[in-house]
Amino acid sequence: MKKLIIFILSISALTINAQDWQWQNPKPTGSTFTCVDFFDNNTGYAATSSGEIYKTVNGGEDWVPLNAEKNHSISDICAVNASIVVAVGGGGCILKSINGGSSWTNQTSGTNVFLNDVCFINESTGFIVGAQSAVLKTENGGDTWDIINTGIDIFWKIFFVNENLGFICGSGGILLRTTDGGSMWSNQNSGTTDDLYSICFVNENIGFACGGKFSISTVVLKTTDSGATWQKLTCNTTELLYDIVFADENVGFVTGFRNTIFKTINGGTTWTQQPSPAAAYSTLTDIYIDNLNLGIIVGSCGTILKTTNAGETWNLITISITDKSLKSVYFPSSDIGYVAGSNGIILKTSNGGSLWTLQSSSTTNDLESINFPSVNTGFAVGKNGTILRTENGGQNWIVSSSGVLPDLHSVFFVSEQTGFICGDGGTILKTENGGLNWSIVEYGEPSKLFSICFTDQNTGYVTGQLGLLLKTTDGGSTWIKSHVSDRDYYSVCFIEETGYLVGFGGVMKSINSGVDWNTIFNDDKLYYNAFFTSKNKGFLIAFGFLYRTVDGGSSWQLLDNPSATSVYFIDQNVGYLVGSDGTIAKTINGGGDPLSISENELLTDHTIAYPNPAADFLILDNELPCHVSLYTMSGERVFEKYCPDKNSTINIKILTNGIYLIKIVDKISARSSKIIKL
């Protein structure tokens, strides 16, 4: 029951196999778990919005990834018996396993709409519901499916009490009931227009449903007459509720947005909030209760919670060293690597990422960039002129005096002694004694400078706002200034004479050491990090998505991946990416194969919010219920809201003036664009 943020983006429609990024933090995954189901107390399955499917054989203590094609997000999974498992999701996806998840086959659904929920009455008869009022039925264990209903509404969940009596809930308070095994469905009066995301029954008469409108209202319903009438129950929260389950007539649970867990022991008359060890911002999407003791909850950022005492306490199964936003990754050797991010966090691995340890950085300022000229000597820079230096592999980090207060965005060393830093206010710093002292380099313009790189001791480049590009050929003593466009470029990367600039609006390329630049990709999205392993093969991050080129940028492939902000490759095959919510992932096959994208999952390019610039309010260009998020240019999420109505309005008065990325995600697409707050 699983309706969460599905971040799917595309430059071109690709139909190739999935990739292979291995999660290193958190574990088992940092993707959003959308669903969980168990066959018995030991054997269970969970799936994610990234299409990953995991299995446990010890009651949820450990989870291992299964070999399923990750071409679509998965919204629900059903363990039909010990062998048969069925999963459904985006693009009309239906996956079936007949061997307990060891292998999976794609089933023909006959539709490309988002499928939200699947349930089986017995081993032969099952149902699926989804967008556009889709109802699918199988009578042969899921080998074939027939579409028995379509329309304009969104059906979120289907629940059968027995082989004849079943219910569907959906958008706008929709409730449907069947008494003949799904042949005919009749409308029920739910008494609400709020979206209903989940429904369950404990017997033929007593049932419950939940849902709401984000930050506006919460709804919990109960029926005692098999759905003929529904009464609203009081649950002391305004958070959106995603799932409801009952172990018997008295004991039940609801879960939802912002780490919400409530429990009732009197059939819903009163509800008590349960303490949760998950992150406060976590969305808890699905809950499984087997009996009065065992329970599993899953949610965003790889959250898995388990109880063995009827929900009195919940234990966090997910292993994570941090949930901070990670902004830069660097490996000075094949095994030793470092990551830096928000609140001064620095992580280190000495075994290729199998284990990451937290280091004491001596600062709480956000760190934007990290660089190691040798295995033991390294530097990290960030907010408020922060410069950190270590000479013993990060055992100790020393705060160095930069002599400046503006934010510093990038650090690059050409040797153990010579290094450069750039930042706001036109700041360029240089050291020639291994970072013991830094001198200010003047170039004559107080612009924001975002990225710096050198191809040798003498030749270097700096990029900044409004298309500013600086070049030096004398080791930084003098800089030649040019403006390659009127757009901000956040990353510059050169391999010998071939260079790339990425930022708002796409990618520019030079093949003559920055003398001339040509636009090789152009749109209105935010691209802010690039890494090239050769002149032709490189990687591009576009706010949470990773692209790869093998032909010098003539074409780009979308790689399925966690939400990324920075990427670093040791060689052509081994690479690491880091991102929001503590994301660390590794590839050993060059990022894997491109992701398959279906037509209804393409990101369209047009204005997604207006007016722009805006001072107080934004009107969204949304047709479906959606989640909207706003991010700063450094990737920090500063606003989030669920918008159930078409062309919803959001209040941005509390935001400080500046440039933000807005992301709108619904069940069909994810769209992002730049806005200016006045």
Structure notes:
This protein is an all-beta fold. It contains no helices and 62 strands. A hairpin with a 4-residue loop joins strand 61 and strand 62. It is elongated and about 85 Å long.
* Strand-pairing-aware structural class: mainly beta
Distance between the termini: 39 Å
How many H/I helical runs? Answer: 0
The strands making up the biggest β-sheet line up spatially as 1-55-54-53
General form: elongated
Overall average pLDDT:
87
Could you tell me the radius of gyration in angstroms? 26 Å
Number of strands: 62
Oligomer: single chain
The fraction of residues assigned to DSSP E strands is 35-45%
In short:
It contains no helices and 62 strands.
Describe the protein's topology.
Blueprint: E1 22-25, E2 33-38, E3 44-48, E4 53-56, E5 64-65, E6 74-79, E7 85-89, E8 94-97, E9 105-107, E10 115-120, E11 126-130, E12 135-138, E13 146-149, E14 155-160, E15 166-170, E16 175-178, E17 186-187, E18 195-201, E19 207-213, E20 217-223, E21 231-233, E22 241-246, E23 252-256, E24 260-264, E25 272-273, E26 284-289, E27 295-299, E28 304-307, E29 315-316, E30 326-330, E31 337-341, E32 346-349, E33 357-359, E34 367-371, E35 378-382, E36 387-390, E37 398-400, E38 408-413, E39 419-423, E40 428-431, E41 439-440, E42 449-454, E43 460-464, E44 468-472, E45 480-483, E46 489-495, E47 498-510, E48 518-526, E49 529-532, E50 538-541, E51 546-549, E52 557-559, E53 564-569, E54 575-579, E55 584-587, E56 609-610, E57 617-620, E58 626-631, E59 637-643, E60 649-651, E61 658-665, E62 670-677
Antiparallel strand pairs: 1-55, 2-3, 3-4, 4-5, 6-7, 7-8, 8-9, 10-11, 11-12, 12-13, 14-15, 15-16, 16-17, 18-19, 19-20, 20-21, 22-23, 23-24, 24-25, 26-27, 27-28, 28-29, 30-31, 31-32, 32-33, 34-35, 35-36, 36-37, 38-39, 39-40, 40-41, 42-43, 43-44, 44-45, 46-47, 47-48, 49-50, 50-51, 51-52, 53-54, ...
